[in-house]
Amino acid sequence: MLVIKQYLPIPKQTDNEFWTVERIEHIRKLALTGKPQMIFPKWNSLRILDRVRFKKEDGSISDSPKAKTLTKIAGIEMSAPLYLGDMSYGALSGNPNIIIAKVADLTGTLAGTGEGGLHPEVAKSKRIFVQWASARFGVDFDVLMHGAGIVIKIGQGAKPGIGGHLPGSKVTEPISLTRRIPIGIDAISPAPHHDIYSIEDLGQRIEALKEATGKPVFVKVAATNYIPYIVSGIARMGADGVIIDGHGAGTGATPIVIRDNVGIPIELAVASADKVLREQGMREKFTIIAAGRVADATDAAKLIALGADVVSVGTGALIAMGCVMVHKCHIGSCPTALTNKIDGTRMIDIDFGLKVLVNYIQGFSLELANILDNLGLSSINELKGRRDLLIGKGLSRETLTILGIEGEEEELPPKLGELWSRRRKVYLHELVNKGDPVITSMGSTAPPDVEKPARIVDWLRSDGAQVTRPSIDPYREDIDTSFYLAGGKIYLSLPVIFDIIDAPEDEKNALQWASLALSSAVFTYESSRFYEEISISHDEKGIMKWSKDYELGSYILLPSDEKSIEEVVELKGIPGFIIDEDLGNQDLEIVISEIDTKLKKMGIRKKFDLIAKSSRIRDSGDVFKFIALGADSVIMSYKVFEVALGEGNRSDLKSKAFNLIAGFKKEIALLAGAAGVYSVQSTLTGNRELLRAVNLNSYILQKLRVKVAGSL
User: Fold this and answer.
1) What SS3 state is found at 438?
2) What range(s) does the Glutamate synthase domain occupy (predicted)?
3) For the whole model, what pTM was predicted?
4) Three-class DSSP category at 408
5) Which of 149, 265, 347, 540 has most Cβ atoms within 10 angstroms of its Cβ?
């Protein structure tokens, strides 16, 4: 047994991370000293919260600040507005759960238990909130009676609209006994609670839990499109508060496609939720806990000024205990013994963990008190909702409006980053080898917050259904990802077609074989023998013909530009349009959206297929967003397959092509289920309401007709 009693060296970071070496080192200094280190840091980032500043920022620090951080929620006094985030027994490896619960008692803060049932030692702590999640793992009346409060978990920021996921490799005997599930089997929570399908259902559960236990009840949700309505509904149903978990929050396991494409930033969610509650007269005696990427006391102060009462630190607490951000939580091989499989090989020393986490909370609290001193405030309660103290720099006017702050407007260009980042290549390589949605862990590194956006869809986020409508469980229910094109002549099991015109012969054969096997299609110049029934070709042999010139009964291939937007309304007698970004000079997102809008206004949208084609479409997340912007299907380049193959073994290409297409189909189903969509073609196509933009250029925002994240 290897016992971890000290910090491990921080590995060199070869990719962009939110939790940079500088942020990790700051947390470690707090944890080693218990003293304040730094306030008002200036991080070079596209994250909205990093572009919000206090108008007055004096970085001077005292070890004995005057301001008080004491607060109270639901009748519970807290030494500081810190909630140690909901991390389950199983996601964490036992000792970290014990440490977090004990530290909450020692420091007068609060801690969440997560959904994995109660570790016996954790159950001894008094300042814990027990979680009541969709699977009810290990939950009974006795469990609910422990601690200070109850959290009904509807959603979480790393995987909005889907349930929790503990891989079977981490379900060892102790976890099996606590969660009351079989050893070695994936523990996948249902996406919705099967007794909560409406706001009224939620109200009944809140009342029942209060009646049964006499404890305050909070509801945890992910920050998604309808967060103002969701929080308003939770307040009206009698909950004591809400935990809003923003995009980028950490987790033990989540599909990459969900983590990186669904949900909105916590700062926008908090600001909009606080505003609605105030407008409706429900803000008093209702607590907002803000979670997701709270990296330091300055983040906490900004979120409180935007309307939060308390902030949740989950990943920050793990880093204080030694996390080095290697994103291996889901496979159970954590080098710091925080999220590893419980198999007797390694563990974190409880005394070490207690010391550093207590110090971290003390140092964090002192930094927060120093911020209050520098702002001329005497208590944390004086900071709540003080938007007038903030200013935004480098934000769009729509974002500033949602935040409710003054600011310097800046319209950022949409293309700032690398189209094929190393992480995207690694994800595609795993997808092509396994054929199942790729699982990862910890916080999102996706654009626009961490990696720089490479195209417009990188600024867009999809919805996660919760409270106001139920999500759909893609692991247990059939979600229809199929599309019919050309008036029913073409059936696709998913809205993806591969362009194989210039593909090497072995890749062409593999993609054709896989497309036939999975009822997809290929875009080609000449149909190959045996594959005519899945070919959209220029010759007369495929299931449908395409041409660059107008031909009756043939798809017309048009460049992605302004001229094409005007031309489409004059063309008749064709099944539809293929808009090719590689031939045009306009971003495909804008042209697809404008053509879709124009055809709808004319009342002829259903008469034509609108197919988006580009060598710059990279994965299922891109496909999903293009469909929501108005495309009926997407033509991807065979080069996506080449990127997925990488430099590895090129044997068995047919199986790998099959895995890629099958993996995309499953990921589209995941995104659809998270958004509450049963039928992708009938519900998603052109449904911009399922999208929100994060600080996107105002001109492009108007062109797309997509709302800004946090808006009503």
Assistant:
1) coil
2) 70-377
3) 0.96
4) strand
5) 265
With helix as H, strand as E and coil as C, how does 679-695 read?
Answer: EHHHHHCCCHHHEEECC
Tokens of 576: 């539809």
Single out the residue of 446, 412, 51, 495 nearest to residue 262, CA to CA. Answer: 446
**155 exposed, middle or buried (CB, 10 Å; 0-12, 13-18, 19+)?**
buried
Tens digits of per-residue pLDDT, 477-490? 999 999 999 999 99
In this structure, what are the phi and psi dihedrals at residue 291, rounded to the nearest 5 degrees? -130, 155
CA distance 390 to 400: 11
**Tokens 């052109």 -> residue:** 686
β partners of residue 72: 77
The vertex-97 CA angle with 95 and 103, nearest 5°, equals: 100
Q: Supply the DSSP string of 469-535, one letter for each residue.
A: S----TTTS--B--EEEGGGTEEESSSEEEE-TT--HHHHHHHHHHHHHTT-EEEESSPPTT-GGGE
pLDDT computed for residue 198 by the predictor: 87
b/e per residue 363-398 (b: at least 16 CB within 10 A): bbbbbbbbbbbbbebeebbebbbbbebbbbebbbeb
- For residue 129, name the pLDDT band (cuts at 50, 70, 90): very high
Q: How far apart are CA 317 and CA 361, in angstroms?
A: 9
CA distance 165 to 159: 9
Point out which residues pair with 465 in neighbouring strands: none
Packed helices 227-236 and 199-213: angle between N→C axes, nearest 10 degrees: 40
Counting every residue written for the chain, the total comes to 712
Kindly give the pairing relationship between strand 241-245 and strand 254-255: unpaired
Which amino acid type is present at position 488?
Answer: G
Looking at residue 449, its amino acid is D
Burial of 267 (0-12, 13-18, 19+ CB in 10 A): buried
Percent helix, strand, coil in the chain (nearest 5)?
Answer: 35, 20, 45
The residue behind tokens 């000792």 is 95
Share of the chain above pLDDT 90, in %: 84
Please, are residues 379 and 304 in contact by the beta-carbon 8 Å criterion? no
206 contacts 219 by C-beta, under 8 angstroms: yes
Rounded distance, CA 387 to CA 293, Å?
Answer: 20
Question: How many whole angstroms separate alpha carbon 263 and alpha carbon 266?
Answer: 9
pLDDT confidence band for 180 (50 / 70 / 90): confident
Q: Which letter does DSSP use for residue 2 in this model?
A: E
Rounded Cα distance between 301 and 380, Å, is 9
Quick one: three-class SS letters along 350-363?
Answer: HHHHHHHHHHHHHH
Beta bridge partners of 242: 219, 288
Kindly report the backbone phi and psi dihedral angles of residue 67, in degrees, each rounded to the nearest multiple of 5, phi listed first: -65, 150
Output b/e per residue, 240-250; b: 16+ Cβ within 10 A.
bbbbbbbbbbb
Burial zone of 141 (CB within 10 Å; 0-12 exposed, 13-18 middle, 19+ buried): exposed
Distance in angstroms (rounded) separating the CA atoms of residues 203 and 565: 48
- Tokens 């089997």 belong to residue: 185
Give percent of the chain above pLDDT 70.
100
For the segment 113-122, what is each residue's pLDDT rounded down to a tens digit? 998 888 999 9
**Helix (H), strand (E), coil (C) string for 305-322:** HHCCCEEEECHHHHHHCC
CB 637 within 8 A of CB 421: no
The tokens 């934000």 sit on which residue?
A: 395
Q: Which residues have a Cβ under 8 Å from the Cβ of 586 and sit 6 or more positions away?
A: 560, 561, 562
Residue 630 to residue 502: CA distance in whole angstroms: 27
> How far, CA to CA in Å, does 69 sit from each of 63, 298, 539?
14, 14, 73
Residue that the structure tokens 């996601």 belong to: 91
- The tokens for 189 are 């929570």
C-alpha distances in Å from residue 98, one per residue of 87, 182, 285, 348, 688: 11, 23, 30, 11, 45
Backbone angles phi, psi at 60, to 5 degrees: -65, 145
